[in-house]
Design a protein that fits this description.
By secondary structure, this protein is an alpha/beta fold. The chain has helices at 18-31, 72-86, 101-111, 128-137, 141-151, 166-179, 195-200, 256-264, 319-335, and strands spanning 5-12, 36-42, 59-63, 90-94, 117-127, 155-159, 184-187, 243-249, 270-278, 285-291, 294-300, 309-315. Helices cover 31% and strands 24% of the residues. Bound molecules: guanosine-5'-triphosphate. Guanosine-5'-triphosphate binds at residues 12, 14-20, 49, 97, 159-160, 162-163, 189-190, 272, 289, 291, 296. Residues 214-224 have a biased composition (Acidic residues).
Length: 344
């Protein structure tokens, strides 16, 4: 009998480290001589994470919406087409950080009705520092979404442990254990784990955990809020219909210091940003990442035509304010006679 195609779902809140883990898994499988393929879903209109994945890896991109609701129907089609076209040995679905993973589990299960696929597990990556903070405040839709992502995981990666103290790491491990009694918890920095250890620890999908004892998921007022200032709203799913994304296409380069300052001053409600920018004062293009108040800049030379673009994801922030500020940065360059060169 034909073997079922193994499928893994990567879940975890925005910026927790899913793409970092994806890169490790892909290297692992390729090292074993296997052919992995990826379904990547982004809230923004461009796939910036895709740039970090080697071009030889077949990829289906689902952009501009969340896989678990607004474009969920497309997942079956994309996955089926990818499998048919590329005949991979293994497929990873990287959901947006705003996705409710159970909806994706549902969609994959649907596909298995007509395609030989086996859902091997749901890996949830947790940003240790972010979870501690949310746990302490114990409110908001983000908190509930994180909780849901943790509850149904088959394995939990407690990532970014470099950003918490030893005591906090213990505290956060207890939280994870309380919310998910089944999954193995693997602490990590930059998801640096033995892929075998990770994949062996997968013990199936714990959908029942959602309704388990001590369930703290509660409906509350802010679940009904929808953003006005939005470029995108996950329209139908109550867990994250508060999440919004704004995509900004740059028409010209910006000054690196001013841009760094702009990133530093992003409103708290923007919890994830990424993009590609050309700086007027350096000769390179940079991929920038911003997750839970930490920014990273990496020099890149993108393959093919990639625009200068930035995607901002968060809750209830004003996209018009961000747009105005970015346009100001772009304009300032025009007003300046000569830029001083610096290297980041
Ligand atoms: N300090 C620290 N930074 C990390 C760690 N792991 C990942 N990062 C950084 O966090 C940022 C987000 O990482 P990604 O792997 O892109 O996160 P993601 O979950 O794929 O993000 P989205 O797809 O936007 O939800 C990047 O700048 C990473 O370099 C970690 O363990 N510690």
């Amino acid at each position: 009998m034909e073997q079922a195609m193994p499928v893994y779902i990567l879940s975890g809140f925005l910026g927790s480290g899913k793409t970092t883990l994806l890169q490790r898994l892909l290297d692992h499988w390729k090292g074993l001589g296997l052919k992995p393929a990826v379904v990547m879903n982004e809230l923004g209109e461009v796939n910036l994470d895709g740039l970090l994945v080697e071009q030889s890896v077949p990829m289906a991109e689902m952009l501009g919406g969340c896989i678990c609701c607004s474009i969920r129907g497309d997942l079956s089609t994309e996955l089926a087409t990818l499998i048919k076209k590329e005949s991979p040995d293994v497929v990873v679905i990287e959901a947006t950080g705003a996705a409710n993973p159970l909806e994706i589990v549902d969609a994959v299960t649907e596909i298995s009705l007509y395609q030989l696929v086996e859902l091997k597990g749901l890996i949830t990556v947790v940003d240790a520092a972010h979870l501690i903070e949310l746990y302490r405040s114990q409110q908001g839709a983000t908190y509930r979404l994180m909780q849901e992502q943790i509850r149904c995981a088959s394995v939990l990666i407690l990532n970014k442990t470099d950003r918490v103290t030893k005591e906090e790491a213990e505290e956060v491990t207890e939280i994870l254990r309380k919310w998910n009694a089944y999954a193995e918890i693997l602490p990590a920095v930059r998801c640096a784990l033995e892929p075998e250890e990770l994949l062996d620890g997968l013990g199936g999908i714990h959908t029942e955990a959602r309704f388990g004892e001590g369930d703290e998921l509660q409906e509350s007022e802010d679940q009904d809020l929808t953003s006005k200032d939005t470029e995108w709203t996950g329209a139908s799913h109550s867990t994250h219909d508060h999440v919004m994304a704004y995509t900004h296409y740059f028409k010209r380069p910006v000054n690196s210091e001013e841009f760094e300052q702009f990133v530093k001053e992003l409103p708290r409600d923007v919890y994830r940003a990424k993009g590609i920018v050309t700086f007027s004062d350096t000769s390179s293009r940079f991929l920038f990442q911003y997750a839970y108040r930490e920014a990273d800049f990496m020099k890149i030379t993108p393959q093919g035509e990639v625009p200068d673009v930035a995607v901002f994801i968060g809750e209830h922030f004003s996209s018009s304010d961000l747009r105005t500020r970015l346009l100001q940065l772009e304009k300032r360059i025009l007003a300046r006679p000569a830029a001083v060169k610096r290297s980041l």
